[in-house]
Amino acid sequence: MDSKSKRPEGAEDRISQLQDDILVHILSYIPTVYSVRTMVLSKRWNNLWTFVPSLHFDQLDNRIGHYRTWYTFDDFAKFVDGALSLHNSSTIRKFRLHIGRIQLIREEGVSRIRDWICTAMRHEVCEFDLYFCPNYQLREKIELNLPQRVFLCKTLEVLKVHSNCINYPPTKPGYFPSLKFAKVTAEHGDNSSMGELFCNCPVLEELSIDAHLMKKDVKIWISAPELKTLRTRILVNDDERKVKGISINAPKLENLFVYTDLTRYILRNAKSLVKANIELTDFEENLSPELLNRATALLAGVSSVEYLHISGPNYVACSLPNFCNLKQLKLILFGCSYLEYVMELLKRSPKLEDLVLDIDVRSWYREEYVEGYEPFKPPEIVPICVVSHLKTVSITHITGHDDQLGVVKYLLKYGQVLRNMTIFTCGALLFKTSHITEEKFQRKILKYHKSSNTCEVEVKFENKGVVSKYCFPCGSSNLHLDQRYRR
């Protein structure tokens, strides 16, 4: 610290003059190792940290520059033991315990961790945040059984657990009586015990599960009568994906976010569902019959939603369910054989108002996709939503091929209530994939007939980070430069 940053002699220490409850509140926002160090400031600060209702223990917090001062787990454990024994507050509102991969932890260490957790639960903890991931490269197979006090704690409202070695007992009636938010991350390891962790959660409102399952035939049960938001990221370490799947019974569920390699999903009583985001990963364009059935079942389970986001391969169009309430649809499309799929979705979504198509351009660089295109073949019957409900259309990463432009032309021709169509691309992408310039692309768009007199078309080109926005206003036949801006 240089001389300019030092407090002048005789200057008033206004922070130390604050009331105790204000200082304690300030200390609750910093790691416990630093709040303890405030004792050296003056006698005024000597015992304040012991009344802080939030305890944050992280083995990486105690640093000098880039060097950690916890050389072993025992050093870290001694500090935690001492801090808990001196703590004077009757309530620990938030208890955060993070132990990373760098430490060698033995059975006696696991026992001490359980003791710390029990101490926190006895102090009526409201939020419990545990990160515990021992380093398996040290060939230490560690298992941590969460104490029963965690499940019976009447004050626990928020639970966050990230681990690769925790065993969870099946929850029973009476467990998690006040839990409203839960986030569980299970890394590689035997995490099959989490299957029944959330099968009895009477007041749970928001749940997030991120798991990489290592065992076959694992089934996850979720039963929560008050659950409104569910986020799942389930991946299976099994080429045949023999996991039994996820069963969800949540009659008040409104928001569902799924990231999966097509683990089987079974949704029961999902009549309140409003928004669904489904992202499928690591799939070839043509799905096997078994995976196709799982995809169809998942979409059927969310068919009542108003807002739907799908990212993944193209399903067989005839296997799609009807989306009678759908108002907004966003598709991130893989490959180029998706047009029948898009049109079928339009047919099955009679109330659709907002359509977003995001084309995954990676597949268009492959020659087998670029060559041999057939122009877009419009359906014989125009979907009801295109004529009577569709108001906004956005197409991103368009490459200028005839089938894509055919969709643009079709929607402009039959979109009687269309208000806005936005097309986003870049000059390099147009030229590389279809040998078309920006000027030629603009002229093509200008030629298309618009059924709606209130429709405005915007074409955005990106070149070297600069976006040019061209606007085709309502009732005009000229496309003019609206603005340029750097992205």
> How much helicity do the residues have?
10-25%
Assembly state: single chain
The overall pLDDT average reads 79
Largest sheet: 17 strands, mixed
InterPro entries: F-box-like_dom_sf, F-box_AtFBL13-like, F-box_dom, FBD, FBL13/AtMIF1-like, LRR_At1g61320_AtMIF1, LRR_dom_sf
Domain FBD: 384-460
Pfam family, one: F-box
Protein name: Putative F-box domain, FBD domain, leucine-rich repeat domain, L domain-containing protein
Task: Describe the protein.
The chain has a 17-stranded mixed sheet. A three-stranded parallel sheet has the order 11-13-15. It is elongated and about 80 Å long. It is of the alpha/beta class. Among the domains are: 16-167, no CATH class; 327-487, no CATH class. The chain is built from twelve helices and 24 strands. It has helices at residues 20-27, 32-37, 73-86, 107-122, 148-152, 289-301, 339-347, 367-370, 384-388, 402-414, 427-434, 438-447; strands at residues 54-58, 63-64, 67-68, 94-99, 127-132, 144-145, 158-163, 166-167, 181-186, 206-213, 219-223, 229-236, 245-249, 255-260, 265-268, 275-280, 307-312, 328-333, 354-359, 392-396, 420-426, 456-463, 466-472, 480-486. A hairpin with a 2-residue loop joins strand 22 and strand 23 (466-472). InterPro entries: F-box-like_dom_sf (IPR036047), F-box_AtFBL13-like (IPR053781), F-box_dom (IPR001810), FBD (IPR006566), FBL13/AtMIF1-like (IPR050232), LRR_At1g61320_AtMIF1 (IPR055357), LRR_dom_sf (IPR032675). It comes from Rosa chinensis (China rose).
